[in-house]
Specification:
With 396 residues, the chain is of the alpha+beta class. It has helices at residues 56-64, 140-151, 167-175, 194-197, 241-257, 264-270, 287-295, 297-309, 321-347, 356-365, 382-391; strands spanning 9-15, 18-29, 34-47, 51-54, 84-92, 102-105, 111-122, 127-135, 157-159, 179-184, 207-210, 213-222, 233-240, 276-281, 368-371, 374-377. The radius of gyration is 30 Å and the shape is extended.
């Protein structure tokens, strides 16, 4: 254990009745022009009588460094979150040193070595507030409960995409007693379009207004497949007339431009479904509240489009799990800053004129320079000054 070939670092040394852990250091001897290893201070020792005994030097080090054993890196203060959304992403990885990288299927049915990224989004603050990296061979629905526990959520709603629904996923959600909104594909057999075919869908006062557009709806109770649940399972079909007109016109136009994929016969088969959205849920909210909650997913999509296209965080070259976790934490903080700038631009109604990237570029172009011991603003264009004034940025 204490051989002369011992490398610099820590080593063990055996004395009579005592096992020592010693710090080994390299010291350069100029006369011989080579390094020599010397024993440093004792880190800890183990004796038969006293057991494990830390050295005085190690006790001093521990007294200087604060105890952080009770702090978790993901304590983001989300226990006050009232409602959130889960979003799952898959990342491919070829590294053999990342245990999270496992063979599995993603939403595109690609089977490859990958890991999953689970995100929770707060619809109150409109910010991503929590993330968790998962092995690629673990189904997302199995991880929801532990994500909620770690995030300390009081209430959360899983808002999925259309590819998430399956009989197996539905049964697991019901079994775990989770709140969810699952959009259904228009071809799903749970949806009845009979009222739309008979032109009786718009009846009574079953409508509300969303972004100055009337939205009609109809609710159907769905029998739970094999799981008994205290919350009734229901499907809500929404009809947006403006969306229906746009989809119908688009399909008819494609019959002319892409006759190999679109036909008038298929148009007549689909025309009653244009402009509809069907949501499967156990929420006790009314139809308008469920619709508004589902539409908050659009903000989530903006965030993850930013992650892929702006931050280019849809792939990583990390070679082990520790660096992967650090890389993901930096991306999380960056994503929060990006979303903060996005919200600011949206509230000031500047998104059509200024992108987040433009905003960042403006901030990076403005600098302070030091001349003869005094700090001055650097030169920038009148266009930049105009944008700074519109954004309300105060230059100090």
């Amino acid at each position: 254990m204490g051989s002369g070939s011992q490398k610099a670092g820590d080593r063990t040394q055996i004395n009579p009745g005592q096992l020592l852990f010693v710090r080994i250091q390299n010291r350069l001897y100029k006369a011989k022009k080579r390094a020599r290893k010397i024993s440093g201070y004792i880190l800890e020792s183990i004796t038969e009588k006293e057991g494990f005994v830390p050295s005085a030097k190690r006790n001093q080090e521990k007294a200087i460094v604060p105890d952080i054993s009770g702090i978790q890196c993901k304590e983001f203060g989300v226990s006050k979150l009232v409602i959130g959304s889960i979003h799952g992403l898959h990342r491919f990885s070829a590294s053999e040193h990342i245990n999270l990288a496992q063979k599995g299927y993603n939403s595109s049915l690609q089977y490859d070595t990958q890991y999953s990224l689970m995100y929770i989004y707060s619809s109150d603050s409109r910010m991503p507030v929590y993330y968790r990296l998962l092995p690629g061979n673990i189904r997302e629905v199995k991880s929801f409960k532990n994500c909620f526990r770690e995030a300390g959520l009081e209430k959360a709603v899983i808002i999925a995409d259309k590819g998430f629904y399956s009989q197996t996923n539905l049964e697991m959600l019901l079994q775990e007693e989770l709140l969810f909104i699952l959009p259904l594909r228009r071809s799903n057999t749970l949806i009845s379009y009979q009222d739309l075919k008979e032109n009786t869908f718009k009846s009574g006062d079953a409508f509300f207004t969303h972004e100055e557009r009337p939205i009609w709806y109809k609710t159907f109770e769905i029998a739970s497949p094999t799981i008994s649940t205290n919350k009734p399972l229901k499907a809500i079909v929404y009809l947006d007339e403006q969306l229906r007109i746009r989809e119908e016109a688009d399909y008819l136009r494609r019959i002319k431009t892409h006759p190999e994929r679109y036909s008038i016969q298929e148009y007549h088969n689909r025309k009653d479904r244009f402009g509809t959205i069907a949501l499967l849920t156990v929420l006790e909210e009314n139809e308008e509240g469920t619709y508004e909650t589902y539409k908050s997913r659009m903000s989530i999509e903006v965030i993850f489009d930013s992650m892929k296209n702006v931050l280019e965080a849809d792939h990583t070259y990390m070679q082990n799990e520790q660096t992967l976790q650090g890389w993901m934490f930096v991306n999380h903080i960056t994503l929060q800053w990006y979303q903060h700038l996005y919200i600011e631009l949206k509230e000031k109604k500047l998104l059509k004129k200024v992108s987040v990237i433009d905003y960042i570029q403006i901030l990076t172009d403005v600098k302070k320079i030091r001349i003869n011991g005094t700090w001055y603003l650097n030169e920038f264009t009148a266009h930049t000054q105009k944008l700074i004034d519109k954004l309300g940025v105060k230059l100090i």
